Amino acid sequence: MRGGLAGCTGTGGKDRVRQIAVVSKDFPSDYWKSVRSGAQAAADEFGLKLVYMTAGEYSDPLRQQQEYMSEAIASQVDGILLAPADYSGLAAKLQEARSRRIPVVTMDAQTESTYPVSHVATDNVRSAAIAAGFMQQSGASGKVLIVRSGSDSFTEDARISGFKKGLDGTKLVISETLSVPSGNLAAMQTAVAYLRGHTDISGIFATCSECAAGAGLAVREIGLTDRIVCIGFDSSQDEIRLLEEGVLQAIVVQNPFAMGYFGVKAVADTLSGIKVQPLIETKAEIVTKETIKLPEYQKLIYPFDK
C-alpha cells in the first residue's frame, strides 16, 4: 500500500506543506498500527504530510522497500522515516538519499549505513539482558535455547548479544541458536523437532514475535510447559494468549506509538535545523501473566481498545 507522491516534486513556496515518506514494514498487526498512529500524531503536531509506503503485505518486503525508496527520492520528499526490512539491503538507497540531501531517520531496526541522522528504537541489548535476568529468577537452570528468525536482522543480533550478556555470571549456558522459518506453524515445527532431540533444555529466549509464538506452541505441543521457561519479544495476539495460558512466562513489550511519534519528530527537527540525538530510545517493559492486566501494560498491548 502506498500514499500518494504525485506532485511532490519541486521546492514550492514558503507555505508548502513538507512531505515525509514513511517507508515501513507495516505488517497487519497492532504493533505497526500503533507506530503509524504515533507518526500521524507527530505529523499533525508539526504540520507535516505523511506519505505511507508499506511493504509488509508483499512476499519480498526488501525489494518493495528498495522501490519505495527510489520513488520517494525521485519525488523529492522532504524527509524519510524508514523501518528497514533488512540490515544491509538498503545501503545504496540511503546513499542516494544522502546525495540528494534528504534526511533519513530509521526506526525499529537499524541498517549498516551511517547516513541516518537518528535511529529511534528500543534498547534491544538492555531489554534482552533484563529478560535474561528474569529467566534466571524464574527458575531456569542449565541449557537455554535461543530461537531467532532466519532473516538478516541487526535487531535480533542485538537482542541475542544482550541476552548473552545478561547470562554472564549465571549458571545458565546457551545450548544453541536455532533459526526458524517465518510463520507461527513453521517456526513451531522446527522448534518441536529440536526440542524432541534435546531434552535438556530448561529455557527458551525468542527474539521476535513469530519466534516466540512458534517456540511457545512447540513447548505446549510437547507438554513441557512446566519444565521450560519461555520468554519472547513483542506482544502479538498469539503471544498474549500463550502468556495468559502460562506457556510463555514473560514477553518484552515495546512502545510502538512512541517509536512512530519520535521518528517523525526527529525528521521534523532535522528539517528545522534542530540537532537530534543519534539514538532515541523508547522504553520496553517485561510483562508477565500476573502483570498483564495492569492499566499501563494494557495500554501498550491494546492501544486501540476503548
TrEMBL record:
Residues 20-273 form the Periplasmic binding protein domain. Transmembrane segments: none annotated. It is found in: Cell envelope. The keyword Signal applies. Its main location: other. InterPro entries: Peripla_BP_I, SBP_2_dom. Gene3D superfamilies: 3.40.50.2300. This is Periplasmic binding protein domain-containing protein. It comes from Gordoniibacillus kamchatkensis.
